[in-house]
Design the sequence.
């Protein structure tokens, strides 16, 4: 039987990786749920952000957090550009999958061409900092990731729930023509949501660069689990992917703490299936 | 013995350079076309680029020396996108449509097996660099150029534990953490047997899925088990991910070994210093005593830098590819033929001196049982140096 | 057409014997494999709209079945192929049986489940069948072609032929039409008589079987299988891409997309352009799909769509499918029916008799439960308690499609036609699944009759989106009529019509009753109710408070107060 410390540390570890899933899933969920665009390229964008952060930090010696001030707005514009593209060509939901897959290939090729397929690790001072909470350790980079994930998810939720802007977005999502009749500017909102989703990708990229070793193939490694977290959490619900991601992360971590780690995905995804079958109404 | 080998290498090198110096022998005539695939895109691309740069230098050097049988050599390379089904199809294209004269190695077990099937059907010799499960190589005319033994699951753990026994504090308790990547998993399974025979105690045994992202629980379990030594059945960036997870919980294994880590990412990690790993070649003496090899190391460093590869030293991956071209050249030159059957027969009966030792193929399934050309290296102060066996160790290197 | 097909078949079969380099056979194998996988995926996901992200799982099951049986146990590999298909099917049916029952599991949830299944199966395979080192499959090939590649090519050719034939057959059958209806509006399809659960399960089973078959053959092609390679998410995404690129609405669409994407993949394998090639293929994909939003095939078909020539008016065969008209007996007996929605008691114990051959008006203020009553009788909703007997048979607890088969039809207040089926197909759907199950040809002939009846004949090949409100309401009507129901519920068919259009509609309704149907006519337009009904029933607050001749009922004090409130004058 594993010790309490072991379990506690594992749970923490699962929470942190779940936070990263939630962070990666936030943008995807918003654009899928609110704009009816399945943005597969979100992952490529996040990794592009990670690589750019790496480049600025490693080569130009800029502090990684400062790079966010450059990368996030740039990505906001990229997000808007993508939305413009979808509007201009009236791309249907299914076809957004195709288009964003194409974009993923292009971004991946670009990353490989510039940085090669070999591994890159961003050295940074933050990686060494950790705190102790009783018998448990908390690493700064993990806490930062969780912090970002919580702030962005809760922030988005609060905006959607309490502000006029949020209400307008929700109205447009439910029934665009009627919302327009009430004066809601669907186009502008679409650009806002799309730009925001892309900036979230930039933040996710920063967290990836802080915590992980980068390689172009990693773009695909996260797709499966983040898609699962997004669908599980409910499309368009900002807190959903975070909660679902943490459920997946923690269930896998606990499995790894208790039995042979190789069974972890079985437990997490079976749990997912069981939850879905027992309480499907919560997720539609 | 050490000195003799060095003298021999130096003498050989001098002879070769003497042959190469007076007037470049011009390669003339119809080019000899040698075809292969590499995973230039896809998950294995990070390794492919090393192989590609190496092979390009080999072919260049070959042509500078007059090519093969006096004819220039042309390397036909295709991208198999890390997919074995594409490897099979492309090798068929190379052999039946492009009608290349000879074929060379793709990368990694799955692709090599796919190519091996094709080679078998067309009776082509297949030299291969990176095959992880020797017992699966059932084709008569396949020849490995990595120096693997027939039973790596027995030989390699013994290498590692032999080296570990020379550490200042020889370990007694071992934690095994292995991925389920086919080749490394088999070695770890063997390691457990070897450990029993050597009287070492296994305090933990964990397997994880290749592609796992979260090593937190695994790190905690190792810390809790408190082993003297961590056996990492790992490759690629898994060791780094694992050690970083351990760093987060303020744990560092007293001693550790990882089978085939990506060399670069571990260099700067403090927790990785002292780690052992397997290699065939490292860029220091006595390997670089041979001036030809020293030149190759230099050229590779330049080309790698140009290509943007972060780790520019020649080590295991580059060396096994280099060796495959050495073997090809030796066999073709010795038999004065491009006929696969002839070459295959010659290889079975002969040996080839390569940059990391002498290769031979006279054992079961063209391997050698119980012996190999692998060495153990250790990460010391940001550099990988061979520490065991002593005849290949860097001058003055000790296990720390 | 048939000769062209035969020639094609001969040419394709002859490929291995022509002496081509083996590479062409292998390349064609890859092409055919992609065709099988994309087309089989489309059978469920494209036709019915249930997107599966788990196609890789069933492919993987097929791969590992053959690998384990042929590679580890040494079985002759041809025998393992049907088993590979069977294993995948059993798994698919097991999953579908549970998942399709849960009504709330639509759309993304089914996609999520299928994705989760992939992870589950891959982990199980990794830890049990495979154990880690992968499975080597080195087997003897049956000598049906000169080369090994040729044998595999022929096997996959057979699989592709089977898959395409299945897709074609499904597309042109009532099975396919039912699936397309499910795609557009599953609830309505069920009410129209489509056995949605069975159809989805069948489509899923077929889809999985074909994927498993392809997997089994593939195990031999690569001759060494590992979990990571087999269960990758790439396959799941690729089949979606191929189908979408070619066009998901047509049986041949995914095959076109599969060919396009495989060629794209192959175009860039030269060693020098690998990375650039990757980017280029992404760019080409984007350009193509933007230029052809309906998919390559879909777009081509759109451009060259020719209106089929106007059908000669079929002789109106007035074979009467109704029982001998014995008016006056109760046809539908409703007793104590109650239905609540989250605290709102829509029906609070309704007692009602509907007599054979009558036109019964059902009136009441808004929110009195009229539409809900129709919904529970037709099976759209389940009742909380009560009994509904139709010709003596209890309807409560019967699935909606059986209720439709029994001869009950209804229109929707806000028309809900199947948007991606033509007007003709919309109307022909009911006869295909109605009381007397007709095949497609007879169903279409029947549909023409009702097109004439409702004056929609010239709009037969248009889509509902192209009709105005009046026409769409008549389409609703025609749809409901096409199965010659014994009992027809008309839910506010007159709202939104001009007085002239209304008169036409009333004439139609009388004509329908004269042909033997019993009609329940829910309406707010009092003039119409008074004019056309034999009896009237009034609902308020989920209860029937009056039932009788129109003039009497409308003067009943309870009814007056229900509509107008207490009299103060």
Sequence:
């Amino acid at each position: 039987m594993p010790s309490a410390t072991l379990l506690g540390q594992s749970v923490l570890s699962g929470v942190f990786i779940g936070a990263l899933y939630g962070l990666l899933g936030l943008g995807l969920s918003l654009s899928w749920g609110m704009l009816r665009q399945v943005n597969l390229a979100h992952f490529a964008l996040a990794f592009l952000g990670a690589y750019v952060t790496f480049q600025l930090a490693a080569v130009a010696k800029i502090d990684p957090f400062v790079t966010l001030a450059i990368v996030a707005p740039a990505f906001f514009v990229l997000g808007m550009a993508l939305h413009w593209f979808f509007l201009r060509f009236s791309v249907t939901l299914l076809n957004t999958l195709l288009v964003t897959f194409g974009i993923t290939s292009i971004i991946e090729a670009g990353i490989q061409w510039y940085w090669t397929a070999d591994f890159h690790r961003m050295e940074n001072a933050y990686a060494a900092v950790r705190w102790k909470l009783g018998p448990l350790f908390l690493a700064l980079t993990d806490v930062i990731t969780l912090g970002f994930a919580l702030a962005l998810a809760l922030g988005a939720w609060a905006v959607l729930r309490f502000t006029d802007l949020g209400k307008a977005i929700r109205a447009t999502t439910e029934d665009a023509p009627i919302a327009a009749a009430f004066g809601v500017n669907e186009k502008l909102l679409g650009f806002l949501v799309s730009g925001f989703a892309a900036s979230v990708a930039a933040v996710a990229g920063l967290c990836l660069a802080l915590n992980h070793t980068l390689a172009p193939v990693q773009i695909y490694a996260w797709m499966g689990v983040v898609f699962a977290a997004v669908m599980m959490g409910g499309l368009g619900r900002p807190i959903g992917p975070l909660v679902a991601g943490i459920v997946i992360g923690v269930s896998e971590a606990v499995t790894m703490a208790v039995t042979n780690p190789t069974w972890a995905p079985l437990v997490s995804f079976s749990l997912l299936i069981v939850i879905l079958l027992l309480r499907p109404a919560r997720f539609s | 013995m050490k000195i003799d080998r060095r003298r021999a290498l130096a003498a050989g090198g001098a002879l070769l350079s003497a042959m190469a110096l007076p007037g470049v022998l011009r390669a003339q005539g119809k080019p000899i076309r040698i075809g292969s695939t590499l995973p230039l895109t896809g998950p294995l691309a990070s390794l492919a680029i090393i192989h590609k740069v190496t092979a390009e230098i080999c072919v260049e050097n070959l042509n500078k020396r007059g090519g093969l049988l006096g004819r220039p050599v042309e390397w036909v390379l295709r991208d198999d996108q890390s997919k074995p089904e594409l490897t099979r199809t492309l090798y068929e294209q190379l052999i039946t449509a492009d009608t290349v004269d000879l074929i060379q190695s793709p990368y990694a077990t799955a692709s090599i097996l796919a190519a091996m099937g094709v080679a078998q059907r067309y009776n082509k010799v297949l030299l291969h660099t990176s095959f992880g499960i020797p017992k699966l190589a059932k084709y008569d005319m396949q020849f490995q150029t990595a120096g693997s033994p027939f039973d790596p699951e027995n030989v390699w753990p013994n290498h590692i534990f032999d080296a570990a026994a020379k550490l200042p504090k020889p370990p007694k308790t071992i934690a095994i953490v292995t991925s389920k990547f086919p080749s490394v998993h088999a070695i770890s399974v063997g390691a457990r047997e070897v450990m029993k025979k050597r009287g070492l105690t296994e305090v933990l045994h964990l397997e994880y899925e290749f592609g796992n992202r979260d090593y937190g629980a695994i790190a905690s379990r190792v810390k809790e088990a408190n082993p003297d030594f961590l056996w990492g059945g790992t490759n690629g960036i898994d060791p780094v991910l694992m050690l970083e997870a351990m760093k987060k919980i303020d744990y560092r294994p007293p001693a550790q070994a990882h089978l085939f880590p990506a060399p670069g990412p571990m260099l700067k990690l403090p927790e990785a210093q002292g780690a052992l790993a397997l290699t065939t070649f490292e860029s220091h003496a006595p390997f670089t005593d041979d001036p030809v090899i020293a030149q190759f190391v230099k050229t590779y460093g330049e080309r790698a830098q140009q290509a943007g590869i972060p780790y520019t030293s020649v080590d295991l991956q580059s060396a096994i590819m280099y060796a495959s071209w050495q073997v090809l050249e030796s066999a073709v030159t010795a038999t004065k033929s491009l006929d696969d059957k002839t070459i295959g027969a010659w290889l079975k009966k002969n040996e080839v001196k390569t940059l990391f030792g002498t290769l031979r193929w006279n054992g079961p399934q063209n391997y050698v049982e119980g012996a190999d050309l692998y060495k153990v290296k250790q990460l010391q102060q940001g550099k990988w140096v061979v520490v065991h066996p002593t005849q290949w160790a860097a001058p003055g290197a000790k296990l720390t | 057409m048939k000769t062209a097909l035969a020639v094609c078949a001969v040419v394709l079969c002859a490929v291995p014997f022509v002496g081509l380099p083996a590479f062409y056979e292998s390349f064609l194998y890859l092409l055919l494999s992609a065709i099988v996988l994309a087309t089989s995926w489309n059978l469920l996901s494209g036709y019915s709209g249930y997107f599966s992200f788990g196609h890789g799982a069933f492919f993987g099951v097929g791969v590992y079945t053959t690998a384990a049986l042929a590679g580890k146990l040494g079985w002759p590999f041809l025998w393992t192929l049907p088993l590979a298909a069977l294993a995948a099917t059993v798994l698919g049916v097991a999953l579908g049986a549970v998942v399709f029952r849960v009504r709330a599991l639509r759309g993304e949830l089914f996609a999520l489940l299928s994705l989760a299944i992939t992870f589950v199966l891959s982990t199980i395979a990794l830890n049990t069948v495979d154990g880690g080192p992968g499975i080597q499959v080195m087997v003897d090939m049956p000598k049906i072609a000169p080369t090994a590649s040729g044998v595999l090519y022929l096997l996959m050719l057979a699989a592709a032929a089977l898959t395409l034939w299945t897709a074609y057959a499904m597309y042109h059958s009532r099975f396919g039409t039912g699936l397309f209806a499910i795609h557009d509006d599953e609830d309505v399809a069920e009410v129209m008589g489509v056995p949605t659960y069975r159809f989805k399960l069948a489509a899923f089973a077929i889809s999985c079987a074909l994927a498993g078959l392809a997997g089994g053959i593939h195990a031999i092609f690569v001759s060494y299988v590992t979990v990571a390679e087999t269960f990758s998410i790439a396959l799941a995404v690729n089949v979606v891409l191929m189908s979408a690129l070619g066009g998901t609405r047509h049986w041949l669409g995914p095959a076109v997309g599969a060919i396009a994407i495989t060629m794209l993949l192959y175009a860039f394998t030269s060693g020098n352009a690998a990375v650039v090639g990757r980017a280029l293929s992404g760019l080409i994909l984007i350009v193509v799909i933007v230029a052809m939003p309906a998919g390559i095939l879909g777009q081509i078909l759109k451009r060259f769509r020719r209106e089929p020539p106007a059908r000669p008016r079929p002789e109106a065969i007035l074979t009467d499918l109704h029982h001998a008209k014995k008016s006056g007996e109760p046809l539908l007996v409703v007793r104590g029916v109650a239905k609540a929605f989250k605290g709102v008691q829509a029906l609070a114990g309704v007692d009602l008799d509907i007599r054979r051959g009558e036109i019964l008006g059902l009136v009441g203020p808004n929110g009195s439960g009229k539409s809900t009553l129709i919904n529970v009788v037709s099976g759209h909703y389940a009742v909380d308690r009560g009994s509904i007997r139709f010709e003596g048979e209890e309807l409560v607890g019967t699935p909606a499609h059986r209720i439709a088969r029994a001869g009950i039809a209804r229109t929707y207040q806000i028309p809900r036609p199947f948007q991606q089926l033509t007007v003709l197909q919309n109307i022909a759907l009911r006869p295909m699944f109605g009381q007397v199950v007709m095949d497609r040809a007879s169903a279409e002939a029947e549909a023409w009759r009702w097109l004439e009846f409702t004056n929609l004949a010239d709009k037969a090949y248009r889509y509902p989106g192209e009709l105005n409100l009046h026409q769409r309401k008549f389409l609703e009507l025609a749809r409901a009529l096409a199965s010659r129901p014994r009992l027809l519920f008309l839910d506010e068919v007159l709202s939104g019509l001009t007085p002239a259009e209304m008169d036409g509609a009333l004439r139609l309704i009388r004509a329908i009753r004269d042909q033997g149907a019993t009609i329940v006519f829910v309406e707010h337009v009092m003039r119409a109710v008074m004019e056309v009904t034999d009896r009237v029933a009034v609902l308020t607050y989920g209860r029937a408070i009056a039932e009788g001749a129109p003039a009497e009922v409308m003067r009943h004090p309870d009814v007056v107060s229900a509509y107008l409130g207490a009299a103060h004058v």
Notes: Chain A has a mean pLDDT of 89. Chain A touches chain B through 49 residues (CB under 8 Å). The beta strands of chain A are 130-133, 136-139.
